[in-house]
Every structure is written in structure tokens, then in C-alpha cells.
Design brief:
Number of helices of chain A: 12
Number of strands of chain A: 10
Helix content of chain A: 40-55%
Oligomer: heterodimer
Radius of gyration of chain A: 51 Å
Order of helices and strands of chain B: HHHHH
Chain lengths: ~375, ~100
């Protein structure tokens, strides 16, 4: 059953007692044990005790049952540790590591792709003319105008016959002119228009780069805004503030008016051109077209005053006079008078001819000055 | 009278045939079987109560391994260490069995 126990150090037969019951001794070792037991009574008694154990273990199925009970119970952790030592575990670990490296190398970094999309979107927004604006009658923004001018400049290089400077100016004016639908502006209260004007002033204060720089560099760069911001509202060539005369006779900005208040319109001119004032329903202008230059601040009327009315006043601005050479003379007028003091009625007629293709479309700003009885 | 005594002396009338005698069964006695099973259960419980090293040593012994093999398996320094461990484990086992391999307390 078992090989001889070749233990050269074994001298005490009592040590072999432990192997007798479980039959771990060889025949020679058994004989030595029996011989020693015959000479030692204590050894003999111990051997008899081991004999009862041997008979107990000799029962059929006893050893198998005890071995089954003594088998080490594997815990999941020990099972996992045992599996880690196998070659399959090393192969699986290598495959997982290789897959992780591939994922890191092949998956693109999403944050880098977003700025390019944003820049492209902003450029597209800038290069396209704004379709909607806060004030329908407002012209295209100055930046968009510059872009269009640049585009036309490129077209001029390609097709020199098509565009000439005068034509380009007219075309720019025509482009700057409000669309036909813009003239039907919703009548807004004066204070709302003033709020809109103030908003526009704030937005206009962001000065665009000089035209020369733009011409050299090409289309203006995208505004450095992190989020895709909507196109800035168009800057009007003129901006107005309503003034009301106080008790001391001085005019100061106001938003609410009574029917008897004396009102003036203070206009800040951003672009040189010609400006006139009319009122809805009246054929004659209250103030005929007068030349204005950029940076100028004028009060309309320069003398006299306006009265609040349910009919809106119309401030008209053009970059060129309706009739070249015919410029109206500014004049004051009395309160309540709807007649133009100026004698150049022809200028007024020319101004009314806005549908002529040769005459540039004026920028019309309707100013409603409602009055109250309170 | 002398014939009767002779017959008795010869065992002619007081003997039975061997085939009619009940023979003892070679199977173990059921009582003994039950007792053996009880002892085995106690031995099993006592083995499970031992420490890890004693259980491992007993397992190797029940598997029929020699003490030299057990020395290598348990990474013992010498064979005497195995003998010592075996002596201590058997002493613990006997105490758990009640001082005797059979019967017990």
C-alpha cells in the first residue's frame, strides 16, 4: 500500500503508532512496532487503542466519509486566487489590457471637436445676413455689412464689369434699406422704443475692427464667445431719445408724456446722411431732409416742439438725398403746426418717391409719443 | 441398564445434527453497526474541530500518504516535526472523542 518509511532518523517505535490506525506504515515498520510492543506494556496498551481506531476506520465508507468532511471548502476568494494562477487567467488579463489600450487610442476626444463646430457655426452666423432683428426697420449690423462688402470686393475682382463703386454704394444702400415689410412697424410706445434704443446703444458700443484691417484679413473672425451667441442686433445709423420740456424750459429725457407736454426728439447720428421728420397721415414733412454727419446730435425740431399724438412720427434717414442737390432747409415750426416751414417742397416730394429704383430706400423709424390726460 | 449408560456415554441419544444447529451470521451485529456509526460520527465531529494543520495532517494520513510525503506537503523542516505534530493532533483528537477511540464518555 505504502512504500517503506525510509526515515533514517526514526528511532522511537512509538512514533509509528500514529501511522498504524490510518495504515501509513510499511510491513517492516509494522513488524518493528509489534516487536517493540511485545516488550513494552505501555506501548502494547497504546497499540490496542490504535487497533480500535483502525477497526473504526476500516469500516466500509468510513475513510471516504471522513476525507470528504476534511476536504478544504473553497471560498469564492480562494477559488478566484486559484484561478489567477492558471494560464487562462493571464491570457484573460492580457486581452483586457489590450482592449483597454485600443479603446483609449481609437475613441476620439469629444471635447476637442466641439470648439471647431462652434467656430464654424459662428462664422456661418456672421456671414449670413440676419433674417430677424429686434427692430424690423433696423439695417444689417456693421460687421455683416463689412462681410458683404468684402464679398462684393471679391466679386469685383472676379467680375470687374459688374460692380462699380457708385453701384456698390447704391447696392449697399439698397441692402441697408429695410425690407418692405419693415416699414409696417408695429406702433410701440415711446418708452418701449427708447428701451430698444438703449439696448441697441449698449450693443453698438462693441466697436468692430477697422474696415482696412478687415479688408486685409478677410472676413471678420468669429466673435470670441464661448456659446453660440445670436447675431448682434443691427446698429442703426441714427438713434433717438425723447425729450420733454420741464418747468425751467429745458428739455430732458422722458418716457411718459401728457397731452400738453412739449416734446423734442434728440437724434444721435452715427452715419452721415440726410434726415427728415414726418408724421403718419401727413403729406408734408415736419422737418425736411437735412444733412447730418456722423457723431452729430441734433434736436428735432431745433426750435419749437412737438406734441404727443396718437399718430406716430416718422424719422427718415438716407445716406443720399432723394434728389441730388436738393436739400431741404431745416426750420422750426409752431406747436401743432403740421406744415413744413421749409420752402423746398420738392425735396419732400422726392423723399416720398421711395419706390424709385434710382432713389435709395430711406430708413424710417416710427416714433409714437402717446399722451395722457393725467 | 448398562446399554443406556453406554449409549449416553457414546452420545447416541443426546446429539443433534450439525445441519440443524443455527450458525452465527458473519454480518456484523446491528447493534454493533449502530455503535460503529455513532463512533464514526463522533470521530468526524472531532476531526472537524481540530485546527487547520491537524485537519490537513489527518487528511494526508487518511489518504494513505507516508510521513515523508506528508513532510514535503506540509513543508516541514524534518520528519520529527511531522511525528510531533501527529502526536499532538492525535492527543487532541482523543480528548475530543472522550479519551477513547471507542465508547467515550
Amino acid at each position: 500500500m505504502n512504500g517503506p518509511n525510509k526515515d533514517p532518523q526514526r528511532q522511537n517505535p512509538e512514533r509509528m503508532l500514529g501511522g498504524y490506525a490510518t495504515e501509513n506504515l510499511s510491513e517492516q515498520e509494522k513488524q518493528e512496532l509489534f516487536s517493540a510492543a511485545l516488550q513494552d506494556q505501555q506501548l502494547f496498551d497504546a497499540l490496542m487503542e490504535e487497533e480500535s481506531l483502525r477497526q473504526l476506520l476500516h469500516q466500509p465508507g468510513a475513510k471516504a466519509e471522513l476525507l470528504d468532511a476534511l476536504q478544504p471548502k473553497e471560498t469564492p476568494l480562494s477559488r478566484f486566487r486559484r484561478w489567477l494562477a492558471t494560464p487562462m487567467a493571464w491570457g484573460a488579463a492580457g486581452a483586457v489590457a489590450a482592449a483597454a489600450v485600443l479603446v483609449v487610442m481609437l475613441v476620439p476626444r469629444t471635447p476637442d471637436s466641439q470648439p471647431s463646430l462652434k467656430i464654424a457655426r459662428q462664422e456661418a452666423v456672421i456671414q449670413e445676413p440676419p433674417k430677424e432683428s429686434a427692430v424690423p426697420t433696423a439695417p444689417a449690423p456693421q460687421q455683416a455689412n463689412e462681410v458683404r462688402q468684402m464679398a462684393r470686393a471679391r466679386k469685383i475682382e472676379a467680375e470687374p464689369k459688374r460692380e462699380t463703386p457708385p453701384e456698390r454704394d447704391q447696392q449697399s444702400l439698397a441692402d441697408n434699406a429695410p425690407p418692405p415689410s419693415a416699414q409696417q412697424q408695429v406702433q410701440q410706445p415711446a418708452f418701449e422704443q427708447q428701451a430698444l434704443r438703449q439696448d441697441r446703444q449698449m450693443q453698438v458700443q462693441t466697436t468692430p475692427p477697422p474696415p482696412a484691417a478687415i479688408a486685409e484679413q478677410g472676413p471678420p473672425p468669429a466673435p470670441q464667445v464661448a456659446a453660440p451667441a445670436p447675431p448682434p442686433p443691427p446698429r442703426q445709423p441714427v438713434e433717438y431719445v425723447l425729450l420733454k420740456r420741464n418747468d425751467q424750459g429745458a428739455y430732458s429725457p422722458a418716457t411718459s408724456f401728457r397731452d400738453s407736454d412739449a416734446v423734442r426728439i434728440q437724434v444721435t447720428v452715427h452715419e452721415s446722411g440726410y434726415m427728415a421728420l414726418t408724421r403718419q397721415g401727413e403729406s408734408k414733412p415736419l422737418v425736411t431732409a437735412q444733412p447730418v454727419r456722423a457723431g452729430q446730435i441734433v434736436q428735432i425740431p431745433p426750435t419749437g416742439f412737438l406734441l404727443p399724438s396718437s399718430r406716430p412720427y416718422r424719422l427718415e434717414f438716407t445716406r443720399q438725398p432723394a434728389a441730388p442737390g436738393r436739400v431741404g432747409i431745416i426750420g422750426g415750426f409752431r406747436a401743432g403746426s403740421s406744415r413744413a416751414v421749409s420752402s423746398s417742397d420738392e425735396a419732400k416730394q422726392e423723399l416720398s418717391k421711395t419706390k424709385d429704383a434710382a432713389v435709395p430706400q430711406p430708413l424710417v423709424i416710427e416714433i409714437l409719443i402717446p399722451g395722457s390726460t393725467n | 441398564m448398562s446399554g443406556v449408560r453406554t449409549g449416553q456415554r457414546r452420545g447416541e441419544n443426546n446429539t443433534l445434527p450439525v445441519d440443524d444447529l443455527p450458525l452465527a451470521a458473519s454480518d456484523p451485529d446491528p447493534a454493533e453497526l449502530a455503535e460503529k456509526r455513532e463512533q464514526l460520527a463522533r470521530l468526524k465531529a472531532a476531526l472537524l474541530a481540530l485546527g487547520e494543520r491537524c485537519r490537513e495532517l489527518m487528511r494526508y494520513k487518511l489518504e494513505g500518504r507516508s510521513f515523508l510525503e506528508i513532510q514535503r506537503l506540509l513543508n516541514a523542516a524534518s520528519i520529527n516535526t511531522i511525528y510531533t505534530w501527529d502526536l499532538r493532533c492525535r492527543k487532541q483528537l482523543m480528548e475530543a472523542m472522550g479519551g477513547k477511540w471507542e465508547g467515550g464518555k
